[in-house]
C-alpha cells in the first residue's frame, strides 16, 4: 500500500461470543494504532477475563496485510493453535490497526489441535464479519502564509483537496494552519503556488 493510503480500521471495540463443545470463546476486537496500544488492549481484556483458561491474542499495527508490526500469542494453548491462525485471519481481513483477543473458558471437552485452530480463527472471522469500521485517513498539517488578496481564492480552493482550516492568524499577512489528507498535500501545495504565483509560503508541520 502506498504511504498515505486510506484503509478501514475498527470503529469501536467489538465483541462476539460462541460456544464450541461446552467451551466458551469470547472474541474482542479493538482499534490499536500503535504496538503500545495493542499491548494495553490485550492487558485490558486479559484483566477483564482474568479467570479464563486462556486469553490468546494477535495484532496487526499498520495498513491491512502489512507484517511490519505484528504480534501473537498462544497464551498456553498448544503451540500454533491460536495466535498464528488468529494473525492469519487478521492479515487477510482487509482491516488495519486491529488487535484480537480470544478468551476461552474451558468446558471440559478437548477440541484437539485442528479443533482449536478452527475455534480461534473462527472466532476472529465471526467478530470481523460484524465489525463496524471507519476509514483511516492519514493527514498532514500545513502552514500557509499568504497575502490578503489571495484569501478568497485560497478558501475556494481548499474543499477540492479536503483541506480543513485548523486556525487562522491575521497580521501583515494571513497565516493558516491546515489539516489535509497526506495524499492531497503535494497537489494542494502545487495548486497554492500556482494560484498565488509562487507568493504563498507553505511549510509542512507534520
UniProtKB/TrEMBL annotation:
Indicate the segments forming the UPF0029 domain, all copies: 144-199
Q: What start-end ranges are recorded for coiled-coil regions in this protein?
A: none
Pfam families tied to this protein: DUF1949, Impact_N
Output the GO biological process annotations, alphabetical, semicolon-separated: regulation of translational initiation
Q: Name all Impact N-terminal domain ranges.
A: 21-128
Q: Where is the signal peptide?
A: none
InterPro entries linked to this entry: EFG_III/V, Impact, Impact_N, Impact_N_sf, Impact_YigZ-like, Ribosomal_Su5_D2-typ_SF, UPF0029_Impact_C, UPF0029_Impact_CS
A Gene Ontology CC term for this entry? cytoplasm
Name the Gene3D superfamilies on file.
3.30.70.240, Impact, N-terminal domain
Q: Which family does it belong to?
A: Belongs to the IMPACT family.
The family database entries (PANTHER family) matched by this protein are listed as: IMPACT FAMILY MEMBER YIGZ (PTHR16301:SF20), IMPACT-RELATED (PTHR16301)
The name under which this protein is listed is: YigZ family protein
